[in-house]
Amino acid sequence: MMALFFVAYFHLLDHPSGAPYVMAETWVDRAVPFQPAFFYLYASLWFYVSLVPALIGDRGTLLRFGVAIGGLCLAGLAVFYAFPTSIERDSTLWAGSPEFAWLAEVDSSGNAFPSLHVATALFSAFWMDRLLRGIGATMPWRIVSLGWALGIAYSTLAIAQHVFWDVVGGAALAAVIGGSTAAWTRQAMRPAYRT
User: Fold this and answer.
1) For the whole model, what pTM was predicted?
2) Helix ranges, 83-163 (H)
3) Quick check: is 17 in a domain?
4) Residue 43 lies in domain
5) Is 16 a member of any domain?
6) Burial class of 15 by CB neighbour count within 10 A (0 to 12, 13 to 18, 19+)
7) CA 182, CA 191: separation in Å to the nearest integer?
8) Residue 4: inside a domain, yes or no?
9) pLDDT single digits (tens) 74-93
């Protein structure tokens, strides 16, 4: 599923349907300093979103999760196609760092709004909370999960990969898809592992 998403994502990144609209900076963007150490939290998204399907204990719930997160990604891709966007990034910020050189090579400043990094992290946090409750995890584990997702969202600003409006768009997309599929998490709240 991720492979199919990336084929479409990079196609739209390289072939936008029109001239990308440059997303405006806000006072929030100017207040958040560049913090390169957050690159690693940013990159941890791929591990975090993989934890949800790894913890799902039955095929039906796994299928529902796949449909839900697939719908979220398709909605994001539809926005990228209909409303191409980018951000203005200071090229000196990422200079001299191999991690950022790799990121700049594979993911330009396009496909900015909504941030799918933010959307998938927060959507996964929604499901993760229900899974953790279903297996009887204590509150500290749920707080760690939510903190991780919020940290990923913050990292998109801290490494200057997105601007505030991209984060708002990603959070809104996660809320809409999460809210519309909330009933699908009931099965996820049942104990995933039985002794």
Assistant:
1) 0.87
2) 98-106, 116-134, 139-158
3) no
4) 39-83+112-195
5) no
6) exposed
7) 17
8) no
9) 999 999 999 999 888 777 77
